[in-house]
Structures are given as structure tokens and as C-alpha cells.
Design goal:
The protein has 493 residues and is an alpha/beta fold. It contains 22 helices and 16 strands. Helix 1 packs across helix 6, helix 17 packs across helix 18 and helix 19 crosses helix 20.
């Protein structure tokens, strides 16, 4: 398997090289030149646990890892740090199946990939004789930051720098990051939104002069964002796992198509579902759920991507994104894998904030459909589902759930549907408690957590309990234009 760049088809590198580099030299994203085919059947996968499914899905993408190396990475990642033996359990709520992706160390779906990425990265470094210290540079809209910090904390040969929007994450998300231990961890709030942080990180990656100075000092950058193919590939696994659990339980028949409904911000999670479909997973529709920052909904409706709009801070902050980086990988596919065309569209996005694909290219997006839910719809959905079923949705899953309801109402599609649940409701306890009608004004975060535990009966996750009394270790805040300088200070260059 070789990987090329969405912006330069002359690039041909191995999986481990792509994982190490993170982002291509000209700013493109690495994509597999071909999509691997499974050499086991879906029926055979029903007899496998999560780790075994992960190996079968990932080995074709990461074929320069030996079987022992890849299984070692998988077993080290998906262990007792997950609080359920299934790793990603399915729960039926009314007519939908909720895929709970938040049973890991930081109670968000990012754990599914960021538990394994440090192992993939350090193995890649060893196999490529890289002696430099690997500096993980990441922007986060809330969940990636903590999951990456937890994954890379005190991993030998690495350090990690996370930038997040100071006023754009939940208080629990912020507290999780600011209390992170580890001598190699660095967290910086920026005065701006996630798009500012993400743009700043990409600019630092593309700074050739800085990169040269780093190499001279024994450092090299890589990324823990889903722009890193080592982040994206592990996310493909849980779509196969969900399908084969439904098959195992007799809910669907072998080959029957299902829908996946995914709350979407940076487009990595739903792109992984698209790759699963490309590998042969029987998928009917990929429902892209947005909040009021509905740039993706508008794109799937019109073929026009336009980030020139108000940035709205919502109670589902991981979806508060107007520049969805991973969409570039899909654009590369629908343009016929044209790096030239992709580069042109991404340049238009950077310079003018707008690009548009052709009607013929838009036709290739037929597997996707978009939907969005407002803040009020999100709140109402969380309350209604809780009142009727006792199940507690977090604010992102609430958006996805309402979008699914709208989809069914408008299409009449009764296809079995799996909804990605991307975070524990405890991560957004204030918004969830407010939604279900509990008093929140003047109540501190941990009282709200205890209150949610009382009304729902859900166990408070260990990740939340550990925050009680945890000391703040990171308190740096800077402007978006100061991000590069902060990196230089941290690395002493």
C-alpha cells in the first residue's frame, strides 16, 4: 500500500511514513492509492471481538507493519482503559441503534483512534530509523486535545502541543486539558475559534524555515488530528464492528444495507464510514448531521462550500467548525483523484472562502445526505428522548438524533440506522441538565455531574471523577498570530 497527497500525485510513500509526517509537504492530506479489500467475510467477523475486527480492517491500510507489530498496537490500545468489554457497544433507543464511542479514557469518540495512534507512531518511527523527537502539534475543538494528550503523555521520544479556542469548549473539556499530567504535554488556549487554531497549526506545519530549524535541533512535527491517516484508519473499524454486531444478533441479514448517521465537524468520522463503504461494507446512506454551523449541510445540498458566514458558538462545540479539513479527501475522490483540481479548490477556499464542485462531481456524493438541527431542536430532543426512554444523549448525539428523525420524516426510509454517539453526556453535563429541565444557573460543574447521576442513574465515568480537585497545570493563552512563537518557546528554538 502506498499513500499519495491530495495535492500532489507524484507523492508515493508507505503507511508508516505517512503517519510520521502527518501532513504532506505542500499542505495536502495523505490518502491511500487504493482501497484494500477484506480477506474475511462479514459473517466471519461476527465471531470476532473488537481487537480482531480491528486487525482485519487495518492490516490492508498498514501493510508495512508486521502482524506482530500491528496486533501489538491494537492490544495495547483497546485494553482495560475502556470501561466496557465490547469497546464500542450498541444500544437500541426507539427505532435507532446508538453506537457508543465514548467508553475510553477521555469519554469521547476520539479515544477510539487516539488510544492507538501513539503506538502506531512510535512503531513507525522505529521502522524508519527516526531518532528525532516527534512533536505532536494539534488543534482541537474540544475532544481531540484531551484524547491526544492522554495518549501521548510521557510516551518516550514524543512531546505534544495542543491549541484550543479559549472560549469555545465546554468547561469539562477545558478542565480535562488544563489538568493533564505528563512532562511532555503542553496546552495553549487561543483568543479565537477552532478554525483559527486549525489554520494556525497548518501554517506552522507548512513553515519550511521552522521545519529546517527543528530538524537541526532534533525535532520533527507530526499530527494527532484526523488529518493524520493514522488517526483516520482506526475509525473505519467501528463501522464494521457495528454492522457485524447487528448481523450477529439477527437484526439484519448478511449483505443488507444500513444507514450511518454521524454528528460531523471536521469530517473525519463520517469519512471513515465512507472508506468502510468503499471497502465493501453494505451502506445505504451516510447522514451528515450538522448543528447551526451548517456549512456541510449547505455543501451537500448545493455543491458549493462557503465558509464566509457567522461562526456560532453552540452547546455542541466539537461541531462548531466552518473549515472541515477532511472533506478535502472526499473532494479528491469526486474529482477523479485529481491533485491539480483539489489544489485549485483548496486554494480558492483559503483565498476567498468559497469553492464549488461541478454537477457531475456532486452526483458522486449520492451516498451522502446532509441535515442540521438548531440549538432548540437539540435541547428538545435530549429532553424528549430522556423522558420517553430514560436514555441520556449528549449535545452532539442529540443533534444527530434529531437529524435522523428529520431524515426519516422526509424520506420515509425505514432502513436500519446506526447513530454515532460521540461523547458521554457527562462531558457536557451543564447543557444536558439544562436540556432535561434541571436548574443550572449558579450550580457548579460537579454538582451538575452529581445531579445528572441522580436523575439518570448513569455511573459517573472515572475520567470525570479524576477531575475533582485536580490541579491546573497549563494556563498559557495567546493570540492566533502568536502560535508559532509559542511552539518556538516550548521547543527552545
Amino acid at each position: 500500500m502506498k499513500y499519495t497527497s491530495t495535492r500532489d500525485n507524484s507523492v508515493h510513500i508507505s503507511a508508516s511514513e505517512a503517519i510520521l509526517q502527518g501532513l504532506a509537504n505542500e499542505g495536502g492530506l495523505f490518502v491511500p492509492e487504493t482501497i484494500p479489500v477484506l480477506d474475511v467475510t462479514l459473517a466471519q467477523m461476527t465471531q470476532m471481538d473488537y481487537r480482531e475486527v480491528a486487525y482485519e480492517v487495518m492490516k490492508g491500510f498498514l501493510d508495512d507493519f508486521t502482524e506482530e507489530e500491528l496486533k501489538g498496537c491494537i492490544n495495547a490500545a483497546y485494553d482495560e482503559k475502556f470501561d466496557t468489554p465490547e469497546i464500542a457497544p450498541l444500544t437500541k433507543v426507539d427505532d435507532a441503534y446508538i453506537l457508543e464511542l465514548w467508553h475510553g479514557k477521555t469519554i469521547a469518540f476520539k479515544d477510539m483512534a487516539l488510544s492507538i495512534l501513539p503506538h502506531l507512531l512510535t512503531t513507525s518511527a522505529k521502522n524508519n530509523n527516526v531518532k528525532d523527537e516527534i512533536v505532536i502539534l494539534t488543534a482541537t475543538s474540544g475532544d481531540t486535545g484531551k484524547a491526544a494528550l492522554a495518549g501521548f503523555a510521557d510516551v518516550p521520544g514524543t512531546s505534544i502541543i495542543v491549541f484550543y479556542p479559549k472560549d469555545g469548549v465546554s468547561s469539562i473539556q477545558e478542565r480535562q486539558m488544563l489538568t493533564q499530567e505528563g512532562d511532555n504535554t503542553h496546552v495553549i488556549g487561543i483568543r479565537g475559534n477552532f478554525d483559527d487554531a486549525q489554520t494556525g497549526v497548518k501554517n506552522i506545519f507548512n513553515d519550511k524555515e521552522l521545519k529546517q530549524r527543528m530538524l537541526e535541533k532534533g525535532f520533527r512535527f507530526s499530527s494527532a488530528n484526523s488529518i493524520n491517516i493514522g488517526r483516520l484508519v482506526p475509525q473505519i473499524v467501528y463501522y464494521f464492528y457495528a454492522y457485524t454486531r447487528l448481523l450477529k444478533d439477527g437484526i439484519i441479514t448478511d449483505g443488507e444495507k444500513i444507514n450511518f448517521d454521524v454528528p460531523t465537524g471536521n469530517f473525519g468520522n463520517i469519512l471513515a464510514a465512507y472508506y468502510a463503504k468503499q471497502m465493501g461494507l453494505p451502506v445505504n446512506r451516510l447522514i451528515c448531521a450538522s448543528n447551526e454551523n451548517k456549512v456541510l449541510f449547505d455543501f451537500f445540498e448545493t455543491g458549493r462550500y462557503d465558509r464566509n458566514r457567522e461562526f456560532i458558538l453552540t452547546s455542541s462545540p466539537s461541531m462548531d467548525i466552518l473549515i472541515s479539513s477532511n472533506l478535502e479527501r472526499l473532494i479528491y475522490e469526486v474529482t477523479g483523484k485529481s491533485a491539480e483540481k483539489t489544489l485549485d479548490l483548496m486554494t480558492k477556499l483559503k483565498e476567498g472562502g468559497v469553492y464549488e464542485i461541478t454537477p457531475e462531481e456532486k452526483e458522486k456524493l449520492s451516498a451522502f445526505c446532509g441535515g442540521f438541527a438548531t440549538q432548540e431542536e437539540d435541547k428538545d430532543t435530549i429532553k424528549r428522548v430522556f423522558d420517553e426512554t430514560g436514555y441520556v444523549l449528549d449535545t452532539h448525539t442529540g443533534v444527530a438524533y434529531r437529524v435522523y428523525e428529520k431524515y426519516r420524516e422526509s424520506t420515509g426510509d425505514e432502513t436500519v440506522t446506526v447513530i454515532d454517539s460521540t461523547a458521554s453526556p457527562y462531558k457536557f453535563a451543564r447543557s444536558v441538565m439544562e436540556a432535561i429541565g434541571e436548574k443550572t444557573e449558579g450550580v457548579d460543574d460537579f454538582e451538575l455531574i452529581d445531579g445528572l447521576n441522580k436523575v439518570s442513574g448513569m455511573t459517573v465515568p472515572k475520567a470525570v471523577e479524576e477531575l475533582r480537585g485536580a490541579a491546573v497545570r497549563h494556563n498559557t493563552v495567546c493570540g492566533a498570530d502568536e502560535m508559532k512563537r509559542q511552539v518556538e518557546v516550548i521547543l527552545g528554538i
